[in-house]
Design brief:
With 236 residues, this protein is an all-alpha fold. The chain has 13 helices and no strands. The protein has two domains: 8-171, no CATH class; 185-236. The chain crosses the membrane at residues 45-62, 69-87, 137-159, 171-193, 199-227. It is a multi-pass membrane protein.
């Protein structure tokens, strides 16, 4: 696509993100179903999907709510799951940090795993992109994913109970994260952090209110950062 057309990079981002709809749609449907079965009404389900727009954090918070966890634990769990967004933001700052505040605010709202993963890969392979071109591509990645997340959440909340169990919508959760995480395990630090989170989360799975997840997330980040620092020092 030619850069002479301002819309070309927007549609390129949308095209690159389109395959993720195969897992985003059932993921959102599943959230609508589970949230409704957990007792949330339609307004609450859609409020959560529109305001949070972070599937993993929504599922984690919902699990805590079903378990009658204190509000502080619900918030802490959701924040722990979404701590990776802070790292995503730091990673994107060299590419988007010079944008006006209102554009950065919108970018932060639509930042999800897919928009980050596609955009950072594009920026690294095409370093000659201007700021406006980077923004067009970034926002383009969410043209389909954002609206479809809302629509599928709504459908799941409205007709979720009528969806046959044989459809096994819950397959979308692990497949989505495997598809996104596997290509990102490019360095020893990434692998160490991932391994730490899995091992610690399994060992502490019995802790109440999902506290093991919070500990696993904190330790994983610490281990990943420590390995990264060690690797930097070891380089000649």
């Amino acid at each position: 696509m030619s850069r002479s057309n301002p819309k070309s990079l927007v549609w390129l981002g949308a095209r690159d993100a389109a395959p993720f709809l195969l897992v985003i749609l059932p993921f959102a449907l599943l959230f609508g179903v589970v949230a409704t079965e957990a007792g949330l009404n339609l307004v609450e389900v859609m409020g959560m999907s529109v305001l949070v727009i972070a599937g993993a954090a929504q599922f984690a918070a919902l699990q805590q709510m079903v378990g009658d966890a204190p509000v502080v634990m619900v918030l802490a769990t959701a924040l722990a799951v979404n701590l990776r967004m802070a790292m995503y933001s730091a990673s994107l700052t060299p590419y988007l940090g010079a944008a006006p505040l209102w554009q950065r605010a919108i970018a932060s709202y639509v930042m999800v795993d897919q928009s980050y993963m596609l955009s950072i890969a594009k920026y690294e392979t095409d370093p000659e992109m201007t700021l406006s071109e980077r923004l067009r591509y970034y926002f383009g990645t969410m043209i389909l994913i954002g609206p479809m997340w809302y629509v599928a959440s709504f459908v799941g909340a409205v007709v979720g109970k009528a969806i046959p169990p044989e459809f096994a919508l819950d397959f979308a959760v692990p497949i989505t994260f495997l598809a996104m995480i596997a290509p990102m395990l490019r360095t020893l630090a990434h692998v160490a952090a991932a391994a730490t989170s899995v091992i610690v989360a399994l060992l502490l799975a019995g802790l109440p209110f999902g506290a093991g997840l919070l500990i696993a997330a904190a330790l994983a980040m610490a281990v990943g950062a420590g390995v990264e620092v060690a690797m930097e020092r070891a380089r000649p």
